[in-house]
Specification:
With 365 residues, this protein is an alpha+beta fold. Helices cover 41% and strands 18% of the residues. The protein contains ten helices and eleven strands. It has helices at 3-17, 24-38, 92-101, 142-148, 158-183, 187-197, 204-240, 251-257, 267-280, 346-354; strands spanning 49-54, 64-71, 74-81, 106-110, 114-118, 133-136, 289-293, 298-302, 309-314, 320-325, 331-336. A hairpin with a 5-residue loop joins strand 10 and strand 11 (331-336). Helix 1 (3-17) runs antiparallel to helix 2 (24-38), helix 6 (187-197) packs across helix 7 (204-240) and helix 7 crosses helix 9 (267-280).
Amino acid sequence: MDFIDVIKALGEKVSRMKDTIQTEEATKNAFVMPFIAALGYDVFNPLEVIPEFVADLGIKKGEKVDYCIQKDGQPIIIVECKHWKEELNVHNSQLHRYFHVCSTRFGILTNGIIYRFYTDLEEANKMDNRPFWEFNISDMNEAAVHELKKYQKNAFDVDQIVNAATELKYTREIKKIVGSEFSNPTEGFVRYFAKQIHTGMVTSKVMEQFTPMVKKSLQQYVSELISDRLKSALSNETNSTKEEPKEEQSPAATTTSVVDNVLEYTDLEREGFFIVKSILRTKMDGNRIYYRDTQRYLNILLDDNIRKTICRLHLNASKKYLTWTDEAGKEAKVEISSLDDIYDYSEQLINSMLRFEKVVEPHTL
């Protein structure tokens, strides 16, 4: 298996098994050791992965960190583990103490689900209070997996990781600030825009007027940006795709084909299709997801087969609906106020698709 497949399989295993894991020791064995092994280290070689590594501090003896990963006989990463249900914030100081007495540049604090990476960017040999990187193993994207590759045994390079850590640390903090300003703009942020638009003094009354407008403008900007990208993706796919092969049609579909020349595949339907496709492709090859337009609704199909209708989007009237077939074989119908509401029914859409085909689970680690 490729590294990305191994990590994603581990993430799925964690999600599937976590409720059966009752102790910290079980968390280590089921989640953390497979993670270390996935990076290429031999968890059964005490010269490479040392469990219960002694990290005595001054007169305080018997201090031990859960794992110390070594390379060429030198410690490179220490790992402190907690039960998967535990909040990691309260254990930050514990890893801080261990880091101080270990000759390593990197420490990991984890509960087997959340992994927090620390180093000493702010002061040499003293662990930073905040992690420079954090991820959830059960929700890994390709960018995170690519970053994680730097910690593999055959790729580990201290200087390269430290350089990357600096960028990760500050981009992470910047994104937090941006996210906070988007959801709840501060006075200084609102004043920045008000000064460029409003003529005259920016009084408290002006600030009161501009604050909700700035928040609304930011939200609209993000929505429009996402919409433009969806339309661009659709345009690229339409230009590169030849006429789709047709499966045997039902009588209803045949009747619809008579009026194909007056059907209009609208921008709203395009965007709705790509939202549904983005949901379904987490469990199925996206190339197997098709659409067929009718005058009243947009069919979304598996394998371009009308007998494998996953859902229908009713978007051409004043009231908009999403329909699918539930586990009992009955049609479920919900009204949606915007296309974003489709995401609220991700589980139902995936289950509707899986009625037609079983998806093979990744190999268990």
